[in-house]
Design a protein that fits this description.
Largest sheet: 9 strands, mixed
Order of helices and strands: EHEHEEEEEHEEHEHEEEEEEEEH
Structural class: alpha/beta
Low-confidence stretches: none
Radius of gyration: 22 Å
Number of helices: 6
Distance between the termini: 12 Å
CATH topology of the largest domain: FAD/NAD(P)-binding domain
Number of domains: 2
């Protein structure tokens, strides 16, 4: 058994922000990250995602993010920045470490169980596992014989050359992928549940706060969080304006069922396809927290800020309202502030193994 004050699970922006404030506060802590290297989910993004099309990236605390050239791949720029942050503050990030479960442990501690390793007994846990490992594919009746990749599987437009492609999803990722694929595909159809809302002007920090507040209402009520990205309007860039003018971003309502060779609507309309690309987002990666039995009757985890109402020693950062670059830093700071109030001065903690 290994003893520590706080275990941080995940080393994306929210996890690193938490580790920074834990270090400043004097808490003994460790960061467990399932990824092979720094960068969180950014290291897995598709190669054609460039910094020019990434929503606003907000600095990690204490280290400025120097914007690279617009054509720099996000999967290169952000991992380099995260890695520099880890080195700058000498953060104890251990990887690759997959946390299998968090459960109630001895001496009033939370037991964090990494796969194949000795467990940690922690006075508190900050969970920052994000969503990338839980791509969401909604169910529709019927059977489609073609490919059905998700955004998480996307590696570039070349594999869609000459094909008829349905892109499902009205978020920024779906739009970006659709515009890329339309350049090489035989034909494309864009399908969304709700009509898209386009926003002129930059994605500012003030606008980000307004979006975060909307998501916060749901998690305080114990409902599954709505994605921050899902409630963010689409930026009206020159590229998007061109795609609208040329008909690429002609939105169709959601189909009702799959057919062997495409999709169909209730009015009898059909559209034949070779591929259905699900740009339908992700769900929070929280399976390892199941032993704590935190789900509310509403299906979500009831939150007060970053703190889990049913278990105040557990904070979820990068969940719900903090699942964005604008929310991650504030979430890390807030979680550590509350843990100081709950646990007291970290210098008073005593290692029971000593």
């Amino acid at each position: 058994m290994r003893y520590t004050d706080v275990v941080v699970i995940g080393a994306g922006q929210a996890g690193l922000s938490s580790a920074y404030f834990l270090r400043r506060s004097g808490f003994d802590h460790v960061v467990l990250d399932a990824n092979p290297g720094p960068g969180g989910a950014w290291q897995h993004r598709w190669p054609t995602l460039r910094m020019a099309t990434v929503h606003g990236i907000f600095d990690l605390p204490g280290l400025r993010f120097d914007q690279p050239t617009p054509d720099t791949p996000a999967a290169t720029a952000l991992p380099e920045y995260f890695g520099a942050f880890e080195r700058e503050y000498d953060l104890d990030v251990r990887r690759p470490v997959q946390v299998r479960a968090v459960r109630y442990g001895p001496d009033g501690r939370l037991l964090v169980e990494p796969a194949g390793q000795e467990p940690y007994a922690a006075r508190a846990v900050i969970n920052a596992t994000g969503t990338w490992t839980r791509p969401f594919r909604p169910y529709y009746p019927g059977r489609f014989l073609g490919r059905q990749p998700h955004t998480a599987d996307y590696r570039g437009p070349a594999e869609f050359a000459g094909q008829r492609v349905v892109v499902v999803g009205g978020g920024s990722s779906g739009v970006q992928l659709l515009m890329e694929i339309a350049e090489v595909a035989a034909d494309t159809a864009w399908v969304t549940r709700r009509p898209p809302v386009f926003r002129a002007g930059p994605f500012t920090e003030d606008h980000g706060r307004q979006v975060v507040a909307r998501v916060d209402e749901r998690v305080r009520a114990g409902l599954p969080p709505e994605s921050v990205v899902a409630v963010t309007e689409l930026p009206l860039t020159p590229e998007i304006e061109h795609a609208r003018a040329t008909g690429v971003l002609h939105r169709r309502p959601m189909f009702d069922r799959l057919t062997e060779h495409g999709v169909a609507w209730a009015d009898g309309t059909t559209w034949e396809a070779d591929v259905i690309l699900w740009a339908t987002g992700w769900r929070a990666a929280l399976d390892h927290l199941a032993p704590l039995e935190l789900r509310s009757p509403g299906g979500g985890i009831m939150m007060d800020g970053t703190r889990v109402v049913a278990e105040p020693r557990l904070h979820l950062v990068g969940y719900g309202p903090s699942a964005s670059t604008v929310g991650a830093n504030r979430a890390g700071r807030a979680a550590v502030r509350e843990l100081r109030q709950l646990l007291g001065d970290p210098r008073d903690a005593r290692d029971p193994a000593a």
